[in-house]
Automatic annotation (TrEMBL):
This is mannitol 2-dehydrogenase. Residues 406-595 form the Mannitol dehydrogenase C-terminal domain. One of its GO terms (molecular function) is mannitol dehydrogenase activity. Keywords: Membrane, NAD, Oxidoreductase, Transmembrane, Transmembrane helix. Its EC number is 1.1.1.67.
Length: 617
């Protein structure tokens, strides 16, 4: 089809779209949403079938006229569906009506797959206006065993571990490594509603820098989802089930601050049948397996935490000790393994635009699709106490899974370069009024700042990483940050700074100070965070703080003074360790804060980049 005609045909759908939005918006208000909802869906289905048949069925009218007409009708249907789905789902999400719709869509996909029905395939194909090919699972999902139970399913889990297991099932016929997702906290309710309604299936869209580099895939490896606050006994039962060989988790960096005095932890110590926390579930399930003389499971942290295996192990042992159960403690210490791992794939928060994209380009009404980048990596210690997926099958690009005994150097490299750069640029970008990471890194001052940070301050004190070309790695990072299709928001990256600084930037600062060097770029990163914690951006708009630890430590109060004192902030040992002891470093941070307040971040950056850099004391 010539591209100008293609344009008209697509344009017609947009016209229909507008008509549909207006007509259905009006109808749903005058007649009530219940009576109208569904009609637009019928229109979409009918119009799609008719558009699909345009090639063969039209006589007299001409194929394009026929197609054009049905595309217009299709547009009306889609246009009607937007306001309807949005309002209906928000109004009735608990009633699960949207869920049924979604389940219907997805079960149709399953049906398509199983029956291989040619017409149905045509519907799916023709619906994709811009011909984005959607890969469906080719394996039989009901034959997947739940080798893995994952606690706290978020977008990152769905773009990383769940994707890898989908590849193993799809491309390598592995049936042992399906995943049961468990939502542990009450905030997991929305994702649980969506995933339960969609039978665990969802759309993963990988978008590269080049617009044409798009890959859409329905992930089928998540075979069930349990919302634990409603059914803790069901969650415990799957954790104790012999099929479960690995219990993995993504509980964010702040999730590892285990405090035995916390009310939920106290509850979990006394209620083995109905835990509320990840630690309670894991330890009581391990105890259940021990008492039943069953093999334990591997406990696998997938968070961006240095030595994440060691860290979760310490938490689990601390909790188990508080139970005063010697046999359990011994079982955990001698039988359970906690592999360290470095995980990497930038995965933004899902936006409504992403939902619309999937709806429009793939014909899928997914309540919570995931957008991610093409790059992925997983460096993992080969230490699994009860078997593991054949990860060696995924050792090549694009999967980049590496089983090794030496994860630490890779972890350091990733966190001190990628996550530290994220942390160093997000507050400056935010203050400057940017919304996304790619806008921020494309600002030439910021880019130069980040290059100085990585090259002059991080790299010289980075432990050697075998077989890695660091310069290439850093160039790739800048490229990944610049990906305009990811729409990774600064507000996501700015979250939980108090938990991120100690892990991503403080180690570099400590090493540099030890060498007698003042790391200026790191100092500016801290300065920009203090300025940000002050609560207003440079246009005087209020900043909504989302930071568990900072709130607990009341850092925003320290920072909100008219002249926030760097030395007082640096004295918060939980975040900065001993940094306050270094007076010249504290003065440098103080200068950054002062300059940021007086001259703004743009001028500060300019001065900083052309300034003395990391000079020796
Ligand atoms: C998938 O597996 C289930 C359970 O083994 C079986 O009942 C079903 O017929 C299979 N479906 C297809 C399409 O092969
Ligand atoms: C994007 O990819 C397409 C097809 O692979 C290629 O022809 C085009 O030159 C690329 N565009 C850019 C800006 O790299
Ligand atoms: C660390 O890097 C990943 C990309 O692998 C990013 O998505 C994530 O948000 C970062 N995590 C933190 C806590 O900064």
């Amino acid at each position: 089809m010539p591209s100008d005609i293609q344009g008209i045909i697509k344009g017609i759908t947009n016209v229909g779209n507008l008509i549909g939005q207006l007509v259905f918006g009006y109808l749903s208000d005058s007649k009530g949403r219940k009576s109208v909802y569904g009609i637009e869906l019928l229109i979409i289905i009918m119009a799609t079938i008719c558009s699909a048949m345009a090639g063969s069925a039209a006589t007299g009218v001409g194929t394009l006229g026929f197609l054009g007409f049905w595309r217009l009708v299709l547009g009306i249907g889609i246009g009607g569906d937007y306001p309807m789905s949005a309002t209906v789902s928000s109004e009735w999400s608990s009633a699960g009506r949207r869920g049924q719709m979604l389940a219907l869509t997805f079960s149709m996909q399953g049906w398509v797959m199983a029956a291989g029905n040619a017409l149905a395939r045509l519907i799916v194909d023709k619906f994709k206006c811009d011909s984005v090919h959607t890969h469906l699972p080719t394996y039989n999902r009901s034959q997947l065993k739940h080798g893995i139970v994952h606690l706290s399913v978020g977008n990152f889990h769905r773009s990383h571990l769940a994707y890898y297991m989908d590849v193993l099932a799809n491309e390598y016929d592995q049936t042992e490594w399906g995943i049961i997702g468990v939502g542990v906290r009450s905030v997991d309710k929305p994702i649980s509603t969506v995933l339960q309604a969609q039978d665990g299936m969802y759309t993963l869209i990988s978008k590269g820098c080049n617009e044409t580099d798009v890959d859409v895939r329905i992930i089928g490896s998540l075979i069930r989802y349990i919302f634990a606050p409603d059914a803790p006994e069901r969650a415990l039962a799957v954790l104790m089930h012999p099929h479960t060989k690995i219990v993995s988790m993504t509980i964010t960096v702040s999730g590892y601050d285990l405090d035995l005095k916390n009310v939920d932890i106290q509850h979990d110590l006394h209620h083995p049948q109905a835990p509320r926390t990840v630690f309670g579930f894991i330890v009581h399930a391990l105890d259940g397996r021990r008492r039943a003389n069953k093999a334990p499971f591997t406990v696998l942290s997938c968070d961006n935490v240095q030595q994440n295996g060691e860290v979760i192990k310490r938490c689990i042992l601390k909790f188990a000790k508080a139970l005063n159960n010697i046999e359990l403690l011994d079982y955990i210490q001698t039988k359970v393994t906690f592999p360290n791992s470095m995980v990497d794939r930038i995965t933004p928060v899902t936006s409504d635009t992403d939902r619309q994209y999937v709806h429009l380009h793939c014909g899928i009404a997914d309540g919570w699709p995931v957008v991610t980048e093409p790059f992925m990596q997983w460096v993992i210690e080969d230490s699994f106490c009860n078997g593991r997926p054949p990860l060696e099958l995924l050792s090549n690009a694009p999967y980049n899974v590496l089983l090794t005994e030496h994860v630490e150097a890779s972890e350091c490299m990733k966190m001190r370069l990628l996550n530290a750069s994220h942390t160093a640029m997000c507050y400056l970008g935010y203050l400057m009024g940017y919304t996304y990471i790619h806008e921020t890194i494309l600002d030439k001052h910021i880019q130069s700042y980040i290059e100085h940070l990585m090259n002059d301050e991080v790299t010289p004190v980075l432990p050697a990483v075998p077989n890695v070309d660091l310069d290439a790695y850093k160039r790739t990072l800048i490229q990944r940050f610049s990906n305009p299709h990811m729409k990774d928001t600064l507000s996501r990256v700015c979250m939980d700074g108090a938990s991120k600084f100690p892990k991503y930037l403080v180690p570099t600062i400590v090493e540099q100070l030890k060498r007698g060097v003042i790391p200026y770029m790191c100092a500016l990163a801290i300065g920009s965070w203090i300025r940000y914690l002050g609560g207003k951006d440079e246009s005087n708009r209020p900043i909504i703080l989302s930071d568990v630890l900072a709130t607990e430590l009341k850092l925003h109060e320290l920072a909100s003074e008219t002249r926030p004192s760097a030395i007082e902030m640096l004295s918060v040992r939980q975040v900065f360790g001993d940094l306050a002891n270094d007076q010249r470093f504290a003065e440098t941070v103080q200068n950054a804060v002062k300059l940021l307040y007086e001259e703004g971040s743009k001028t500060t950056l300019e001065k900083w980049i052309s300034g003395p850099r990391s000079s020796h004391k």
